[in-house]
Amino acid sequence: MRKRRIGTLVSSSYCIVHAILFTPSGTFLFLDGYVPPVVLSHRSKGIWFLLSSNDVTESTPKEQTHLINEDHATDHRHSKMDATSRFHMDMRRMLKSRRNSTSEDGNISTSLHEFSPMERRIRPTILTEDIDGAIRVTSMLRHMVNIDAATEESFQIVFQALVGRGRLRWKNRDSVVVCAADEVMLLMDEIWERQNGKVSTKTCDLALQVYAACCTPRGDRRYAQKAQKLLNSMEENGIIPSTQSYSYVINA
């Protein structure tokens, strides 16, 4: 690992800091050491980083240099996976913190005492707030995709959150009323393209479960058609369907 000396020590009182900085292009820079409790600036690859003393914890004065580690390609891949794991932890932690607004099984639709996720006879409620965190984790996934840190597991976390919404609907950023299946259709196409059709049965089953939940006998049948198309694609690409896979398609 290559280490570079940066910055200037301008104070006799130091603070210990452990942090990860990354550039918009996805280059991860690791910060680990003692720095003065003042704003420190450093330029790397044309990008300036600012570190405030408010973000660190004071330690005893110590004459150490401030080191920043810039990894090689192999270390960078490892660092990216580490960052991905941190994102996943934050996503799961956030979803868990929202569960106090839902039922014991974590399903927001059943917590409203209106219908079960597979109930077809009652018109679904339109949500006005992201009380279960599904929209939040979707935004986090989008950020991970933008910095090339998303994995199939990232998509699975979002799919699982959307499964919990059942047939509930909400307005997206364009004020269009959508349901979980609308979101999953776009995300499923994206992960399928990203991985060239090498998607796990678990991911496919989560998508099929959402399609089945959002289908209605009198409504638009595109979700049922999408479920059948996904099942066909699984078989064509060597993805072995589970018993649940067929069950979801039948229910759709």
Give a structural overview.
The chain has 252 residues and is α+β, with helices and mostly antiparallel strands. The strands form three sheets. Strands 1-7-3-2-6 form a five-stranded antiparallel sheet, with helices on one face. A three-stranded mixed sheet has the order 8-9-10. A two-stranded antiparallel sheet has the order 4-5. The protein has two domains: 2-71, no CATH class; 75-251, no CATH class. The longest helix has 26 residues, at 73-98. The termini are far apart. The chain is built from eight helices and ten strands. The chain has helices at residues 73-98, 108-111, 134-146, 152-163, 180-194, 201-214, 222-236, 243-251; strands at 2-5, 15-22, 28-35, 40-44, 47-51, 57-58, 67-70, 126-127, 169-171, 177-179. Keywords: Membrane, Transmembrane, Transmembrane helix. The chain crosses the membrane at residues 12-31.
